[in-house]
Amino acid sequence: MAARPGVPGSALRVLEEALGLDLAAAGDTAEAVAAEGAFYLEQVAITEASEDDYEYEEIADDNFSIPEGEEDLAKAIQMVQEQATDTQILEQKTVLPSKQQVPEVIEDFLCNFLIKMGMTRTLDCFQSEWYELIQKGVTGLRDLGNVPDVYTQNMLLENENKNLKKDLKCYKQAADKAREDLLKTQKERDFHRMHHKRIVQEKTKLINDLKGLKLHYASYEPTIRVLQEKHHTLLKQKMLTSLERDRAVGQISGLQATLKHMEIGHNYHASATRVGPNSEKENAPEGPTQKGLHEAREKIQSKTKVKDNTKDSEFPTDMQPNPNLYLHKENICPAKFDYKLNSIFRLHELPVSCVIMHPHKDILVTCGEDRLWKVVGLPKGNVLHTGFGHTDWLSNCCFHPSGNKLATSSGDTTVKLWDLSKGNCILTFEGHSHAVWSCTWHSCGDFVASSSLDTTSKIWDVNSERCRCTLYGHTDSVNSIEFFPCSNTLLTGSADKSLSIWDARTGNCEQSLYGHMHSINDATFTPRGHMIASCDACGVTKLWDFRKLLPIVSIDIGPSPGNEVNFDSSGRVLAQASGSGVIHLLDLKSGQIHKLMGHDSEAHTVVFSHDGEYLFSGGSDGTVRTWS
Prior knowledge:
628 residues, alpha+beta, four-stranded antiparallel sheet, 11 helices, 36% helix, 27% strand
């Protein structure tokens, strides 16, 4: 590019020497630049608020200040007019043609270059020498002219290049961040897609299970109808059987009365009716009526002989002290609550109603609704003996104090006594009009007490084989009965929501305890006998002070019913069998409740071993579970 007219060649040489550049090389590109347009250097005044973000040093220029009187008024007016014109153009949004830039003078270009490069000392030397030459009047310095615009353009392009690099770096960072966000979003999308597929699979599985259950339920309906028909048929047969039984009882009563009359007539006409050994009457065959009369006569004679030979037992007056009173002093080991399911014994086909421990041996006796009771050896759970004889479900059983006899109560309204050494029934007590719920032995072993659905309790004499006393007072089913240890006191729990204390000798109710809001299912004494525990049909368990006959505490473990409660041998732990299948263990010292989860269905009964190391529970699925 050629310099403007009026710029001498000496100026270009000075510029080459100052910058160390070869302007001849710049001349080779003059034609290309000329094709794009002419460039000019413009004189720029450097202020403090420069757009280049460089720090410039202030140079004292007092010699070049313009006096106040010499200001050009015409230029000021022209500037105001130009500003007004620019405002109008901006309002009209008119695009003005580009204005040619004024080339920058050589000294300003050099100063800007040195400031940009940070060469402050060189700048100070240059300015001092430059202005010193001007003051000396060297006129050639003013004629050097302007810097060719190619250098200015190079600087502008360099700045623009730096700005573009900065923008490129920012864009790269933004692109990297966007890439990371994209990867994260893709991972989340894949996760949610897999979760959606899993949910769809689970939904499909549940729909298939629901369809299978509906089909299964539909298959049960005809079975239920068949069972209902069988049930109605059995009820009819039961009614017919009861009618036949009543008819047979009436016939027997009539035969007994006839027999008595015949005996009376035989006494008066003995001489007339006696015949020789060769009589035809003696050789004639007997009819069914005569056979029934002979059998009834033999039974009456055998019963009268037994009654004549046996006497009623007497209730003991000098009772021995309760041996469990001092157990709490001997049991110094802490109570056990960390029971775990050890084994499961499937003993009955129907629900287990009662489980008890032998008083002296490691033997269990279980009763079930399948009309059977079984003697089970521990710890293997092998069945040693199976007893049968009841005609309906068994509700409870109890050991004789010596452990050689067993009493069972049943829904067939009877209480049976069994000899465990032989396994046969030795005695049957009949007298209740409805199912018998519970039975208990007296500590002397001569009396058995039973409670029934007919709202009464009975005390049976084992020696005279008869009912000694019937306890009246409850207004609903008597669900539980138990003798106080080593005494003549009875405890009963009833569906009328009350507990009653009875004197077995007189049959009188001495005290009644009220507090339950629902039917009482079970009640029992502690081994020491100082406290009573009871549970009702809504899972509420109450503790009573037997000496003061006042309630101690009430614990709600519902809403499932509490079926049975039992203390351990120390009397410090109370176990409750719940209708939800959970065995609750209550710490009487701290009041904490521990749960044993293991039954798949309702738990009916629970009992501790003698040393408290094992716990046995029976459920409605016919199993007995061992906890240790």
